[in-house]
Queue: 2 jobs
Job 1
Amino acid sequence: SQTIHQWPATLVQPVGSPLSLECTVEGTSNPNLYWYRQAAGRGLQLLFYSVGIGQISSEVPQNLSASRPQDRQFILSSKKLLLSDSGFYLCAWVLIDEQYFGPGTRLTVT
Amino acid sequence: QKEVEQNSGPLSVPEGAIASLNCTYSDRGSQSFFWYRQYSGKSPELIMSIYSNGDKEDGRFTAQLNKASQYVSLLIRDSQPSDSATYLCAVSRSTLGRLYFGRGTQLTVWP
């Protein structure tokens, strides 16, 4: 069966520090993958999506970047975190026409 | 700008009642429609998908779609306290396409 993993589950980082969040998918090949952020009391914001290795589309040109080094791996990064980067980061993938979310990473920037 | 609008709530219903959640969307080209349930502190969970006009039932959940009115709803029959969550509406133009989410409706079912 298909599963999606994210780590870490929680993270507390100081302003200006780097960030790396990882998402991996099992049980499928060449999935469409997505990174979302959900800030406190706000809706889901699509950050990046990828249709294949090395193919990244950005929805939000901020201090975040994404990479897809392997078919089933999607990484979200930042060189210098801002306070406004705090939130719940969700990776998602598509099975046929339905999008499923990973467990998420809760990031607090202090 | 593709808008998906939901009443933010909170919507409060007694246990055993029918909860009705509504969603409107602006993009007439939308073809796929989804409802997600999100418990506090957890990631969204897909509970219903609907693609054609009419009703789709799954257990206590019924999704209703009216493309002419650009309206999709979710009915929860025999509501239970465990249904208390935020419900997110999402729409997409095509299969494997990106989803556009509403901001969610918070539902509370009280015993």
Note: The two ends of chain A are 38 Å apart (CA to CA).
Job 2
Amino acid sequence: EPEVTQTPSHQVTQMGQEVILRCVPISNHLYFYWYRQILGQKVEFLVSFYNNEISEKSEIFDDQFSVERPDGSNFTLKIRSTKLEDSAMYFCASSGVVDRAPYEQYFGPGTRLTVT
Amino acid sequence: GQNIDQPTEMTATEGAIVQINCTYQTSGFNGLFWYQQHAGEAPTFLSYNVLDGLEEKGRFSSFLSRSKGYSYLLLKELQMKDSASYLCAAPNYGGSQGNLIFGKGTKLSVKP
């Protein structure tokens, strides 16, 4: 069964450093998402991406964040200068099915980001 | 705005039935999702309701009442592996397709 994959599974970085989290969505999906979940809190939407551009972003997704789809398979989230409060589990998700909305989203296993 | 409420924790016995409730307030409505999340893992899709009524899928069923802004997830013949958090989620109405707003989740503990 196709699945969303994410790398790395765990990333430790120092405050102020840049990190790139990588995702490979399901191959025939069209919509891509990043969510985050701070330990013990709810899953929060960050950004959605469709047709090679951001379709929506939340208030969390400020200028420190960016997303890219550099080739036909990868979808990345970059945090330019990490802060302690960026420590969280970051989930990538993808969905397809053009003629029906909303779509069932498939989540990747997540990247646990720890900022020290 | 969007608001999704669900109980924080529930406990049930193996083999029993449990109902997890969710109430939502949304500026529009485009369906309601239930996801299961085991500790330290990703949410996995359980169900999606857009019409009123009960949708059954094996041991899990989900109910929706749009007029009451209410949904529940029903788990039958509970197994130990059902111990997890259950997340109620709704698409962000007015946003682009499918951005999900999640509730805080209900942590279900199944005891022998």
Note: The first strand of chain A starts at residue 5 and ends at 7.
